[in-house]
Amino acid sequence: MRRLVALGALGLALAACGSPRQAADQSTIVVDTTTSAAAAPVPPSSPPATSAQDPATASGRCTAAVLAGAVESTEAGAGNRYGKLVVTNNGAAPCTVNGYSGLQLLDAAGNALPTDLQRKPDPGPAPVTLAPGAAAAANLHWTVVPTGDEPVDRPCQAEAAKAAAIPPDETQPMSLRWGLGPVCAGGKIEISAFYAA
């Protein structure tokens, strides 16, 4: 009887231990199971905190209703004129501008004058979040030298009294005073994207 018990115990020990190859296989299985469990992705319960804290996505777009706009002359030379379209957040909350403004030259009665707005890549579009009272600017460049069949003995184009500027991704314009002389080359104005002023 003792012999049978001893043989039974030995058989159980051998079954538990197995051969060296079986032991290695069992170890591999255990390691693989642990590794795959650790690598299993955990579904996020909420969006990453960084996107929720990004002021450009947390605030709304700046609209004509909250922006005050002005065109400022910066320099002139050799028939070239340079200026800035400056917008200021007059609202009570932050808002964001990202990209290029629309711009249309107008006469005193509000009629459209020739305007050929061309976007320049420097600086290019980037979100600019404006706190209340903060401003952003876009660079402007145009010429006063007649081109093509434009007259040389009088202004090349009718001089604009004002302009309509549309903030990026919006449809309602702001009314701006122009008063910076005629814009030749068919009303060609180069404009950059907005940047923090």
UniProtKB/TrEMBL annotation:
Cross-referenced Pfam families: DUF4232 (PF14016)
Region (Disordered): 38-57
Keyword Signal: yes
InterPro entries associated with the record: DUF4232 (IPR025326)
Bias-annotated ranges (Low complexity): 48-57
Keywords: Signal
Domain of life per record: Bacteria
Every DUF4232 domain range: 62-194
Keyword Iron tagged: no
Signal peptide per UniProt: 1-23
Name the record gives this protein: Uncharacterized protein DUF4232
Native organism: Saccharothrix texasensis
